[in-house]
Amino acid sequence: MVIEQAIFHIIEGQQNAFEKKFYELSDIFRHAEACEKFKLIRGIENKQQYILQIYWMSLEAHTDVFMKTEEFKQWFLAMKPFLAEKIQMQHFENTLA
């Protein structure tokens, strides 16, 4: 299993609109074949910062399959107006069970 962590920096004052749009379009992750689970969390000290964590079956399932779908491209275009800067994305794996 691979854990994707994407950090979103949202334009000041757009947090509620971002959350609403994200939740409206969140079925993209629920229906993605290789997505095990996901969650969106908001910063406490910096309320413009969000972290999206997605648990994928494999790195390839995320980068080589999911990110090339038309659904992902449309989702990204819907999120882009809320972004204050480029999304920072990293992948992780468990080291302790």
Q: Can you describe this structure?
A:
The protein is an alpha+beta fold. The chain has one domain: Alpha-Beta Plaits, CATH 3.30.70. 32% of the residues lie in helices and 30% in strands. It is built from four helices and four strands. The protein has a four-stranded antiparallel β-sheet with strand order 2-3-1-4. The longest helix has 10 residues. The protein is globular and about 35 Å long. The model has no long low-confidence stretch (mean pLDDT 96). InterPro entries: ABM_dom, Dimeric_a/b-barrel. One of its GO terms (molecular function) is monooxygenase activity. Keywords: Monooxygenase, Oxidoreductase. It is an enzyme of class 1 (oxidoreductase). Its EC number is 1.14.-.-.
How many distinct beta strands? Answer: 4
Overall geometry: globular
> Which structural category do the helix and sheet elements fall into?
alpha+beta
CATH architecture: 2-Layer Sandwich
- Name the strands of the widest sheet in spatial order: 2-3-1-4
Major sheet details: 4 strands, antiparallel
Instruction: Supply Rg.
Output: 13 Å
Q: Within the CATH hierarchy, at the fold level, what is the topology?
A: Alpha-Beta Plaits
Number of contiguous helices: 4
Helix fraction, binned, reads 25-40%
Give helix and strand order, one letter per element, not per position.
EHHEEHHE
Total domain units: 1
Instruction: Determine the mean pLDDT.
Output: 96
Q: Kindly, what is the distance between the CA atoms of the first and last residues, rounded to a whole number of angstroms? A: 12 Å
CATH class: Alpha Beta
**Regions with pLDDT < 50 over 5+ consecutive residues?**
none
Strand content: 25-35%
EC number: 1.14.-.-
Pfam families: ABM (PF03992)
Organism: Acinetobacter sichuanensis
Keywords: Monooxygenase, Oxidoreductase
